[in-house]
Amino acid sequence: MKKNIAIIMGGYSSEVEISLNSGNVVYKHIDREKYNPYKVHILKNKWVLVDDNNNEYPINKHDFSSEINGQKITFDCVFNAIHGTPGEDGKILAYFDLIGLKHTSAPFYQMALTFNKRDCLSVVKNYGIKTAKSIYFNKGDEISEKKIIERVGLPCFVKPNNAGSSFGISKVYKKEELKNAIQKAYNEDNEILIESFLNGKEVSVGVIEYKNEIIILGITEIIPENDFFDHEAKYKGKAQEITPARLSKTEEERVKEVAKIAYKALGMSGFSRSEYIFVNEEPHFLEMNTVPGMTEASLLPQQAKYAKISLTDLFSNAIEMALNN
Q: Does domain 112-130+199-290 match CATH 3.40.1280.10?
């Protein structure tokens, strides 16, 4: 008997449109011989099941069911395609745990941990993984520009602590640019992270649990046309993405080792894509994405193709591992 799969997409952050695109790709490629897929939009003003004619049916939050023409639809599993809150930060996953509904993501605490850049960095550092120098602020903290520059130098990156798709990020070259960059980051989040600039080759590493084994999908070298791998570079083709990355044997083996250590240290399961910059052949961890983009322009699908895993197989594996967990 086919399993009913809710593909949740949308969310409450600036990444809503990207998430809807990702969710639609999952819906397009899911194995319909095994599953009955349903698109579920999780938005600030409504939770609705959306059919192929764009008719909307409210989700009953008591048990995450819906009703279509008098027939109650319940789900065997949720495929999480929400970038940002409440999918990538674990909030909605805690709700699913409470009502006993299985999902394709890591446990909610691990999702919350990796989404918080500051806390995520504190864990990986403990496992000997290199990172940039950094300093953190909460909204309302007194900020000393002199102290920031003494700590991280210039240029530096100013980032929202809890945000994705490079929203709110600035590369700062001059002391006079810090104020506006900090405000831009605070527009996305009440916590910000300021990091030193690392000058080196940037790569993205897809790590997943596939057939009960942690595997490296692929390593993608990123060469942005813009000043850094910003939102435009990620989603509007303003970057060269080379899979497999042009790495020395030493670099390749080391980043694979570090990526697996980070995956295990953070208690991950399911999908992940982590970013690194090489300094003297040593990969420095930037961040981990636990709901990586699934659009045609996204890195993880490119890496899966390199690993000779179709999107259909990739999505089926995630669902089966969730159902059997």
A: no
Is CATH 3.40.50.20 the right assignment for the domain spanning 3-104? yes
Distance CA 121, CA 114 (A): 8
Q: CB neighbours of 239 closer than 8 A, spacing ≥ 6?
A: 222, 223, 224, 225, 226, 229, 233
Question: What letter represents residue 271's amino acid?
Answer: F
**Per residue in 4-45, pLDDT tens?**
999 999 999 988 999 999 999 999 999 999 999 999 999 999
pLDDT confidence band for 227 (50 / 70 / 90): low
Cα radius of gyration (the chain): 20
Task: Report how many helices (DSSP H) and strands (DSSP E) the chain contains, helices first.
Answer: 10, 18
User: Using one digit for the tens of pLDDT, what is the confidence trace for 51-104?
Assistant: 999 999 999 999 999 999 999 999 999 999 999 999 999 999 999 999 999 999
What's 79's DSSP letter?
Answer: E
Strands (E), 11-155: 35-43, 46-50, 56-60, 65-68, 71-73, 77-80, 102-103, 130-131, 134-138
Domain ranges across the chain:
3-104, 112-130+199-290, 133-196
Structural contact between residues 72 and 38, judged by C-beta atoms closer than 8 angstroms: no
CB contact set of 117 (below 8 Å; sequence gap of 6+): 159, 161, 162, 193, 287
